[in-house]
Write a structure and sequence with these properties.
The protein is α/β, with parallel strands linked by helices and 309 residues long. It is built from 13 helices and 14 strands. A seven-stranded parallel sheet has the order 5-2-1-9-10-13-14, sandwiched between helices. A three-stranded antiparallel sheet has the order 7-6-8. Strand 3 and strand 4 form a beta hairpin. The longest helix has 16 residues. It is globular and about 60 Å long.
Length: 309
């Protein structure tokens, strides 16, 4: 079974930790959001790609929630002494990843080539593809003006009201090499429990990706990142509400309604089953709270079982 997973950062990485336990990783292709990518301290940082690589290689700093484990912060502290604004914190080992990536960019390598290179260094057993090799930037419009996603999410702790979301570079972007082929050849496409607007929505905004998913013969299934009206992690519920959308599992289902066959929701949302089924989407109810490796594996097994029926 060939599996394609559309992925953001932490939620997707947790889900993938379970998925690789029950599916041969060689049959998994992960298409990752790059709308959050940005330059910091002269270096190109790809937060979602790095989160997946660090997590699936066993190097993610789970206590901190980002970056590499056993980190030191000598470089960022020295940059602060030199007058740099250091609201976007990077550890010393994390800096090495971004220095490496930036050097390869300067050598003319594409983001796809660079991601493959870094994934191989971390011994990642499945294929990781950026959604696009082109610059694609998520911009959040707030009452105080436009913010990059990282300014909104990290610097201002998603405290601002979201008025609109714009994807700069969307019209010029093309799917990265291998993305459409992976979608067309997949037996199943899984939408990871990531933000439906600025993680999965960003991937779907790349020209041709959504259309290929709509036209695929593969089964399509989403895992809701919303439980009982609240995001498991991050600002998904707040964003949906600010944009006038339903901040619930029903809202998530509607966001993918044009291509979705099935959705996995948490037991806390079982009362929403009939409303979602009226949208023409099959509902699987299970525990979606990924607290440890066993619950991650159980969730992944529920997804695989559903698409295998």
């Amino acid at each position: 079974m060939k599996i394609v997973v559309l992925a953001g950062g932490v939620g997707a990485a947790r889900f993938l930790e379970g998925l690789v336990q029950i599916i041969d990783p060689k049959n998994i292709t992960v298409i990752v959001n790059t709308g959050d990518d940005e330059n910091f301290y002269g270096l190109r940082v790809c937060p979602d790609i790095d989160t997946i690589i660090y997590t699936l290689s066993g190097n993610h700093n789970d206590k901190q929630g980002w970056g590499l484990k056993d980190e030191t912060f000598t470089v960022i502290n020295q940059l602060k002494k030199l007058g740099h604004d250091n609201w976007f914190t990077l550890g010393d080992k994390d800096f090495a990843t971004h220095i490496h990536r930036t050097n390869l960019i300067k050598q003319g390598k594409t983001l796809s080539e660079i991601t493959k290179n870094i994934a191989e260094h971390f011994a990642i057993p499945f294929t990781i593809l950026p959604m696009s090799d082109n610059i694609f930037k998520t911009v959040i419009t707030t009452p105080d003006g436009e913010l990059s996603f990282q300014e909104y999410f990290v610097k201002r702790r998603f405290a601002d009201k979201v008025l609109t979301i714009t994807f700069n570079g969307m019209k010029r972007a093309k799917p990265a090499p291998g993305v459409l082929k992976a979608i067309d050849n997949a037996d199943a496409i899984i939408i990871a429990p990531s933000n439906p607007i600025v993680s999965i929505g960003t991937i779907l905004a790349v020209p041709d990706i959504r259309e290929h998913i709509k036209n695929t013969k593969a089964k399509t299934i989403a895992v809701s990142p919303i439980v009982d009206g609240k995001a498991i992690k991050g600002p998904a519920d707040t964003m949906l509400k600010d944009l006038g959308m339903d901040p619930s599992v029903i809202g998530v289902a509607k966001h993918y309604q044009d291509f979705l066959d099935m959705i996995v929701i948490d037991k806390q949302d079982k009362k929403q089953k009939k409303a979602i089924e009226k949208l023409g989407i099959k509902v699987i109810i299970t525990d979606t709270m990924m607290k440890d490796i066993q619950t991650k594996k159980n969730l992944a097994q529920s997804v695989i079982t559903a698409i295998s029926l």
